[in-house]
TrEMBL record:
Active site location: D223 (proton donor)
The family this protein is said to belong to: Belongs to the EIF-2B alpha/beta/delta subunits family. MtnA subfamily.
Top EC class, one word: isomerase
E.C. number(s) listed in UniProt: 5.3.1.23
Record-given protein name: Putative methylthioribose-1-phosphate isomerase
Site (Transition state stabilizer): C143
Residues passing through the membrane, by range: none
Pfam family, one: IF-2B
Any one GO molecular-function label of the UniProt entry: translation initiation factor activity
GO BP, sorted A to Z: L-methionine salvage from methylthioadenosine
Function: Catalyzes the interconversion of methylthioribose-1-phosphate (MTR-1-P) into methylthioribulose-1-phosphate (MTRu-1-P).
Keywords: Amino-acid biosynthesis, Initiation factor, Isomerase, Methionine biosynthesis, Protein biosynthesis
Length: 323
């Protein structure tokens, strides 16, 4: 298997960004080309590309496209910033790209650097986190914090990959992750692609498996981590963390430092609310009675007291041990 499944490519000859179209997986592997920054805005909003680090890398290339096409950089920066509100990597990468411009450097070079560095960070997270995994562990994960959500390897799934590469026999349980089904569609695709044993479950099955002692560890990604270690991640993460606490299952979060937001307070964070058709329809068929709407919060917040450890590219932080 190609250990380097990647969702983002820059084509230097044609000056375009090529994204794996994640809306089509696992049934079709298609690519989506971005020649303008507005193409990138669309790709992020419509979730052609998704996952906190991957959104950040794509946005940096979006700003580079604005520069290459002679667009107003300030406007492009603002429009790219408004594509999705919760994952902080978007703002982190755009600010880095903008600072490069202010310092007279090329935005494209900065975007390439952010892209390459993200691969290395993910590898490091995998290698550090892998030390926590025991031979025979069954690990539950939520959403997709894999190669598809980053530049390669992933965060939570990088740990799973490196445990597998080191010869540990592990099994993965993937929450389907309603409503967009990133767990069923993307995590299962990625792990199956590498022949890492994975089983899908409905989100509401996790508690039962924990009660039966069938889960040894939970590892999820993050969209934003505050300085007091509150973790924003895909909706359903908080419920999992509560279940894990009740059943004494270690609950880990894996994320690079580009996902940390040391400035904002809990009350400042905007949790994305997406169109309720993502909930009221399944595969184009309405499943909720006409006239009934739905809540569709894309993320929730897990407090530090529910988190065993946060695995970064530098170290494992134990929020409840004072580090
Ligand atoms: C390494 S990605 C971590 C998170 O971004 C991931 O868990 C997640 O919540 C993705 O949400 P999505 O709405 O698919 O962008």
């Amino acid at each position: 298997m190609d250990r380097d499944l990647r969702p983002i490519f820059w084509n230097d000859e044609e000056k375009k960004l090529i994204l794996v179209d994640q809306r089509k997986l696992p049934n079709k592997l298609e690519y989506f080309e971005c020649k303008t920054y507005t193409d990138v805005c669309y790709a992020i909003k419509d979730m052609v590309v998704r996952g906190a680090p991957a959104i950040g890398v794509s946005a940096a290339y979006g700003l580079a496209l604005a520069e290459l096409n002679g667009n107003n950089i300030e406007n492009a920066y603002m429009e790219l910033k408004e594509t999705r509100p919760t994952a902080v990597n978007l703002f982190w990468a755009l600010d880095k790209a903008m600072n490069a411009k202010i310092n007279g450097k090329s935005i494209l070079d900065e975007a390439k650097l952010i892209h390459d560095e993200d691969v290395e960070l993910c590898k490091k997270i995998g290698k550090i986190g892998e030390t926590l995994i025991k031979d025979g562990d069954t690990i539950l994960t939520h959403c997709n914090a894999g190669a598809l959500a980053t530049s390669a390897y992933g965060t939570a799934l990088s740990i799973i990959r490196f445990a597998h590469y080191s010869g540990k026999k592990i099994n993965v349980i993937s929450d389907e992750t309603r409503p967009r089904l990133q767990g069923a569609k993307l995590t299962c695709f990625e792990l199956n692609y590498e022949k890492i044993p994975v089983k899908a479950i409905c989100d509401n099955t996790a508690g039962y498996l924990m009660s039966k002692g069938m889960i040894d560890k939970i590892i999820v990604g993050a969209d934003r981590i505050l300085s007091d270690y509150h973790v924003f991640n895909k909706i359903g993460t908080y419920s999992l963390a509560i279940l894990a606490k009740y059943h004494n299952v270690p609950f880990y979060v894996a994320a690079p430092y580009s996902t940390f937001d040391f400035k904002s307070k809990l009350v400042d964070i905007v949790v994305e609310e997406r169109d309720d058709v993502e909930v009221t329809y399944i595969d184009g068929v309405r499943v909720v009675s006409e006239g009934v709407s739905a809540y569709n919060f894309a993320f929730d917040c897990t407090p530090p007291e529910l988190i065993t450890g946060i695995i970064t590219e530098k170290e494992i932080i134990y929020p409840n041990l004072g580090k």
